[in-house]
Amino acid sequence: MRGVRIAWAALAFMAAPAVAQAWNAGPWVADLEAMRAAFRAKYANLDWMEQERGLPLDRSFDAAVAAVRQAGDDGAARAVLDRMVVQIGDGHVALRWPVKGGPTVSGSVPRSYATPSALCAGLGYEAGVRPGVAAGLPGRVELAEPGEYRAATVRMDGATLGIVRIPAFMPQAFPTRCEAVVAARPALLNAPCEEACQDAVLTGAYQALTREFDAALGRLRAAGAEVLLVDLSDNGGGSEWAEALARMLSPRPRRSAATGFVRGPHWARQWTALADRLRQHARSARGAERVQLLVWAAEAERGRREAELPDAPGRPRVVRLGYATGLLAEGDAALAAKPYGPYLFSAGQPAYPFRRGAWDGPVIVLVNQRTYSAAEQVAALLQDNRVAVILGERTGGAGCGHTAGGTPTTLPHSKAVLELPDCVRFRADGSNEVNGVVPDVPTGQRGTDSPAFAARLVAARLPEAVAAARRLWAAKGQP
To answer: Engineered SS bond to 256: which of 119, 183, 275, 323, CB 3.0-4.6 Å?
Structure first.
């Protein structure tokens, strides 16, 4: 009978319904609290988020915590965090989720590459840029010369409009430039492409692209273009190289946007490094040059002191110091010739051999809702300095982004990486560039428009933009 009782007990256990384990929201709440703390400590645009966007930090995160507690499963909880990022509306705020089953550490570097294209693909040089809205303008006559910048002309009201497309402000969007650099230096294929190799490829690509842009402007001028349309629609941004190309569109010096940074160790390290570098150059300098270097070093040292100050009531979170190009808003040939020049004015570095005023005439810049980051930087720079008329729709709103690797935060539970911008670019009127650039001549486009319809809307307002650009150029940028 004992055996029978055991059998019945076993059957009873098998028949008993399984008790579902309750889903635990606690770890996801911990992730949200880590996000809240990161926003409070690191987010450069917090004032904009609360005042311009109308999203108070604590109220927004309290609502997200409540939503996570009601989520019921991991998928719904993750969706709450994603919605939090989307509603902020800052193009540089992002959550990078870990890839399930993906590598946790970087793989080994190949000892060699079979072809330049293989090396460039390994370095992240990938095509995939969009053609831009101006590609659909009626009456385009393409210029057949080779190059990475699509150039064309359109006849309008008895005049010739030149069109040049800049799809991105980073060489990684132009794999053929990388391949050309490697093909000219085949020794790069015979060893791991580490830091020195990567710098050589990047510098070569920047130099080639800068010269190609100059050549495209020259071709347009030779084709009789009187007004230039620079198509930055669907341009997602890139690097400070954008400031160099912007200066090719006007012969007159232009001031870059004033910038601000978030207090904390990230920027303290950057200002310390700059101050040390400038003092080192001052040791070998003489006279007025030495004095000026020490003045600049003292300004960088002031940045370090400000960065190290703790938060306190009445103390601004963002310190205004420097410009989008560095400590200087503008540079010249004499500064560019100095070894320390690029540390003061980034657009003047040897990798960007730009020729100021390669174009001297009326300029229109075409933008849309998918114009972001460095592309917005160019549009804002040209608008604030009264170089160009902005045509299209308000840009996406990304503003200043991540400097020197940024300040990423890994969330404790999901291991997602939160990326927050650590700097601010201020417009001439004092506003934050993250608001997006408002066009001078709006076209009424929407982000969901087809390319053909968007081009028709642009074409309808183009004569107005041409007339405005001519008036602006005739006034030489004066109000």
So the answer is: 323
